[in-house]
Amino acid sequence: MPSTTYAQDPRDTMPKVSATYIWLMVLAQFGVFLAFITPIAISLSIRVTQLAPGHEEYLGYITGIGALVPVVTGPLLGTLSDRTRTRIGRRRPFMIAGTIVGVVSLVVMAQAPSIPVLGLGWILAQLGWGQALGGLVNSMADRLPESQRGKVAGLVGFATLVAPVVGVVLAGFLTGDTLLLFLVPGAAGVVLVALFACLVPEPDSRGMVFAEPLTASSLARKYVFDPRRYPDYAWNWLGRFLFYFGLTLNTTFTAFFFAARLGVTVPEVATTIATVSALGVLATSAGALGGGFLSDRLRRRRVFVLSAGVVYALGSAVMVLAPGVPLLFAGSVVCSVGLGMFSSVDQALLLDVLPERETDAGRFMGIIGFATSVPQSVAPLVAPLILAVGAAGEKNYTLLYLTAAVCTVLAGLIVLRIKSVR
Questions:
Q1: pTM
Q2: What percent helix, strand, coil does the chain show, rounded to 5?
Q3: I need a labelling partner for 59 at 20 to 30 A (CA). Which of 3, 206, 233, 387 fits?
Q4: Residue 44 domain-assigned?
Q5: GO MF terms on file (predicted)?
């Protein structure tokens, strides 16, 4: 029986990955986001309009139900990936299977005769493309040494920010053909994931041995972890939760906030939001690349995560206190820089503190997903309560945005409790 050759030390003895690995990883994640995010950005909206004119609320139902999929399946499929024994390794089967399911989902959505079938297609998309992405992220956990994690996280972050923009541009040329609207971005995703799966070798995993058999009860326990046993991972989880809670408070009511500040209606603010979004992509990319590369070069993570939280908080405060449009735009751009820096450096920090890398990396990568998905579900429910505080007929956006600022600063401060990483 062949034996596995995974690196033993999670940080110091891992060999550096090649430039080929890095660029194939960046392109593969670009492809997944192009195929997966384009429906959210435009394609799903078009299909909802076609199938149920005047019922835009159906889009929220579809995306909300779909968002539950990674919560339910993340640790489960991550654990199964950790324990997969095949000649082609642990991660590649999930990339391949996920991509196949992802393509099927796009066909289902493109040809859906009704809203329920469209929703089913989106659930399949979450499951399929989510697993393709999970296989790629788990490969990073398996392979990246500490000295390259920030750089690769920054490059991947840049690629995943650009992908939706490319997807929207493509959609502009394909709106006349519903099938192509979904399948052209999907085809790009298939090709780029296939390149990674075919050209990046992975050790044979058939020789892996596990002390604990996988049962229903042991699988249920994979959804939780003991923070006392893995304190650094727990602090990272909590910091990420707080940052994304603040981020979601900030972004959920952006259109309404801008309309209120500019004294216009929500439809009239669309052009302004588009301009801010374009500037935000550039600023977020700068934060992701700059933070990722510098954190590797200086061998520091925590100070960059703290800085990202403070920068985001500063931008949030500037936005809500801005007396005019220039400062409103400036605050939004500053927020985007902080978001980019956090997303890349915190991802590198997560890989630094990931527990049981050799046996349970997929499981712990699945659990960390809760720190992103839960606040994105809970914060929109909390935000209206904050908006109503002390408001006499007006929405208290000042309190909402300052609360978001406090959350992101707390996220950075909590990360300072991590002891194993500088």
A1: 0.82
A2: 75, 0, 25
A3: 387
A4: yes
A5: transmembrane transporter activity
